[in-house]
Amino acid sequence: MVDQYTIATLGSHSALQILKGAKDEGFKTLAICLKGKERPYQFFGLADKIILINSYQEFPKIDQKLASGKIILIPHASLITYLGYEKVEKLKMKYFGNKKILRWESDRKLEGKWLKRAGLKLPMIFADYKQIDRTVIVKFYGARGGKGYFLAKSPTDFKEKIKPHKETKFIIQEYIIGVPIYAHYFYSSLNQKLEIMGFDKRYESNVDSLGRISARDQMVLPMVDPSYVICGNIPLVIRESFLPQIIIMGESVVAVSKKIAPPGLFGPFCLEMVITPQEEIYVFEISARIVAGTNHYVNGSPYTQLSYLEPMSTGRRIAREIKVALRTKKLDKILG
């Protein structure tokens, strides 16, 4: 039965591990790519079929053609960023996950309400830039990979730095000093269990490269504003004493999601957090789908090795969930 189905995804972000995981579980695979972006999926031989499009605006047309087939679409950040959650909600293809949760992830204010209801500690949010009385980070809506984010230390600083940005939807968030850590989870709607898939930190340009320059040398350089564009991800093993709290945080987020967007959050998700020197954990964002920080773990992470006797990436865990749903005739429970 599994080999009658195709797992499809947009050729970007975490598509390589999604396609690899699908093949490991016996599925056919499909990559939908912008023309000129198909080379990786040909190079690694992970896509049984590649459909090329000229722009992301053509994706709904592809959706109409594929909607009647045994094809299951796996979402990731690029799909949501390039189409927007409203268009993703309207897709007709079989879709792994709960589309209703995307609105809560994409709207910064709704996201904050969700996380607060889950009892998580959040950085302060400033409703008006005139209230800025400490260092803040300004973030724009959507999954942008950190593009455009900037720090500001006063209302005057904010007014100057916001000028180049035409986006009108942003959030002014207290900047918490600490270690940024991204916790990868998977929640199964079939067995109602939470799993920890791994952890990572991001390698960002140019904020990380600035950190390698001594204060003395920075003083003689032309002024360079830090940028938070993500260039890569670095795997982490977190201190074990933090795990109890991190497990509870994941469980709380899932529990609240069932109330705000039934049937709730399932599949992969990520809590993006900062751990302070006082060992407080602040959560500043949730990604309600697979994140690129899982890409290290195509052969499994130290945490999936504790739970599985075989290599288990997040991409493969998605495919495994779909396989189990097919075998138990519960496919409707994992499609949104």
List keywords for this structure.
13 helices; 336 residues; alpha/beta; D-amino Acid Aminotransferase, Chain A, domain 1; Dna Ligase, domain 1; five-stranded parallel beta sheet; globular; Rossmann fold; 32% helix
Question: What order do the helices and strands come in, and which of them pair?
Answer:
Blueprint: E1 6-10, H1 15-24, E2 28-34, H2 39-43, E3 49-53, H3 59-66, E4 71-73, H4 77-83, H5 85-89, E5 94-95, H6 100-106, H7 108-117, E6 125-126, E7 136-140, E8 150-152, H8 155-162, E9 170-174, E10 179-187, E11 194-206, H9 207-210, H10 215-220, E12 228-236, H11 243-260, E13 267-275, E14 281-287, H12 304-307, H13 314-327
Parallel strand pairs: 1-2, 1-4, 2-3, 4-5
Antiparallel strand pairs: 6-9, 7-8, 7-9, 10-11, 10-13, 11-12, 13-14
Helix pairs in contact: 1-13, 6-7
